[in-house]
Amino acid sequence: MDIHLGDVLQMKKAHPCGESRWTVLRVGADFRLKCLGCGHEVMITRQKAEKNLRAVLRNGEKVAP
Predict the structure, then answer these.
(1) Could you give the C-alpha distances from 37 to 14, 17, 19, 22, 47, in angstroms and in order?
(2) pTM score, two decimals?
(3) H or E element: which one contains 2?
(4) How far does Cα 25 stand from its chain's mean position?
(5) pLDDT digits (tens, 9 = 90+) for 2-39
């Protein structure tokens, strides 16, 4: 899957703060994601992130499933 720094990922499940969108801060075998609701940062494996991904938003446009 083609994910770049600064992309916004829409996940299937929402964060406890209620937001389901995350911005990508680091890309590699792991992703560092920042919640757009509360600003919480997490490290997540690429495999787990891609499994829970609903859409990739780049420049306000949907670019992936």
Answers:
(1) 10, 7, 5, 8, 23
(2) 0.89
(3) none
(4) 9
(5) 899 999 999 999 999 999 999 999 999 999 999 999 99
